[in-house]
Every structure is written in C-alpha cells, then in structure tokens.
C-alpha cells in the first residue's frame, strides 16, 4: 500500500513540476528533485530498520506498517466510512490542513 501511495505522490509531484516548469528556474527544479529522491531513499532505509512490536488481547505481533508513519505524529480515526473511500479520497479531504501528512484506509472484517 505504501508503495502505491509513494508512486501517486511522485506522479503528482511530476505533474506539478511539468506545469510550473515555466515559472521555476531549472536550477531550483533540480534541487527539489534531488531533495525528493534523497528523502525517499532515507525513508526506505528507516522503514527497513524499524520493528514495531504490538500487543493486544494477550497476543504479540510486529506491525511494519507503523514504520511508514512519521515519528511523533498524531493520528485521527475516522469510522463508518463508505466503501468508496480510499487513501486518495481521505487525503483530499484532509489535505487543506497544513499539518496533514498522510492518510491510510484500513478495513476490519471482524
């Protein structure tokens, strides 16, 4: 799931770069591209290193998906969402808030 999210963000960034290429200098554009590439590499390395143990109802397991989230973040649970809601829809709904970082839809089939 994180890979598709990163791919969508990358595609969106490329669209923005292409649209704004006329107003942004080539040097600034290359600087931003390099920063994005560096950030992506650093995040992948961090994600591979972390092992996050979880415990509930007497069971213990590791949850690697928690490593996808930034440290010291705050999470908001939104329940009773329709089946049409996906990561993109949720991201668009919260993207107007400057502190928004990412959204993830998870399903519980219990």
Detailed description of the structure:
With 110 residues, this protein is mainly α. It has a domain at 2-68. It starts with a helix and ends in a 16-residue tail after the last helix. Strands 1-2 form a two-stranded antiparallel ribbon. The chain is extended and about 55 Å long. It is 46% helix and 7% strand. The protein contains three helices and two strands; from the N terminus they run ααββα. It has helices at 2-20, 26-49, 87-94; strands spanning 53-56, 59-62. The longest helix has 24 residues, at 26-49. It comes from Citrus unshiu (Satsuma mandarin).
Keyword list:
110 residues; mainly alpha; two-stranded antiparallel ribbon; 2 strands
Write a brief caption for the model.
This protein has helices spanning 2-20, 26-49, 87-94; strands at 53-56, 59-62.
DSSP strand content: 5-15%
Averaged pLDDT: 77
Structural class: mainly alpha
Specify the number of helices. 3
Q: Helix amount, in percent?
A: 40-55%
Compute the CA-based radius of gyration: 17 Å
**C-alpha end-to-end distance:** 21 Å
Secondary-structure element series: HHEEH
Outline the low-pLDDT stretches. Answer: none
**How many strands?**
2
> How can the largest sheet be summarized?
2 strands, antiparallel
Inertia-based shape: extended
Order of the strands making up the biggest sheet: 1-2
């Amino acid at each position: 799931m994180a890979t598709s999210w990163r791919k969508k963000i990358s595609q969106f960034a490329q669209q923005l770069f292409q649209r704004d290429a006329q107003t942004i200098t080539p040097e600034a554009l290359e600087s931003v591209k390099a920063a994005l590439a560096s950030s992506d590499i650093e995040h992948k390395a961090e994600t591979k290193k972390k092992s996050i143990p979880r415990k509930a109802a007497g069971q213990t397991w590791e949850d690697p998906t928690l490593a996808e989230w930034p440290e010291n973040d705050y999470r908001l649970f939104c329940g009773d969402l329709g089946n049409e809601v996906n990561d993109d829809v949720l991201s668009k709904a919260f993207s107007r808030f400057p502190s928004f970082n990412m959204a993830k839809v998870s399903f519980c089939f219990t």
